[in-house]
Amino acid sequence: MDSVIDSRLNESLHLSEQYFSDVVKRSIRSVPDWPEKGVMFRDITTALQDRTVFRKLIDAFIHRYHHLDIDAIAGVDARGFIIGSVLAYELNASFVPIRKKGKLPFDTVSESYELEYGKAEVEIHKDAFQPGDNVILVDDLIATGGTLLAASSLIERLGAEIIEAAAIIDLPDLGGSRKLREKGLAVYSVCQFEGG
Predict the structure, then answer these.
(1) Which residue numbers are catalytic?
(2) Cα separation of 28 and 179, whole Å?
(3) Residues 62-73 pLDDT 10s
(4) What span, in angstroms and rounded, lies between the C-alpha atoms of 65 and 92?
């Protein structure tokens, strides 16, 4: 009997996730050749502007994490702040910003990562977490994975545990989610777009 209940519960959870994914994906605007020719930009502002979709987007994350003991949500500069701060509020967790270098006023640790045309660096306050804190790492998009990999290294250096790296959109063809999984991180996205 328990296996039947578990099976139905899993099916219900999958259907809920698929529903959230479909609603959010339909609302995202695709902008060809931006910021440069050949790039298909996935614009989340249309999802945020629609109050119903924005609520469903937040609900998708809450639905996934509400039953877990989460100490903090770490949001990556800058669009990760949008979802991360609301999610932290809803889950009664703290919010920790992971910023571009030079934006935080106190003692920090930093991590550099490769971009297509150079390097970038993110940083976090040294006192952002307590050792053993359970953290959800949030950004808007998983592309090549460089930013999230750097952010995850910062979190781990401070002794916190990443429960999952989460994003609104995954672009699996660019390999970022694969790299995160190869590092041993669980990865979740509300929706995916094939082909970048």
Answers:
(1) 79, 116
(2) 25
(3) 999 999 999 999
(4) 11
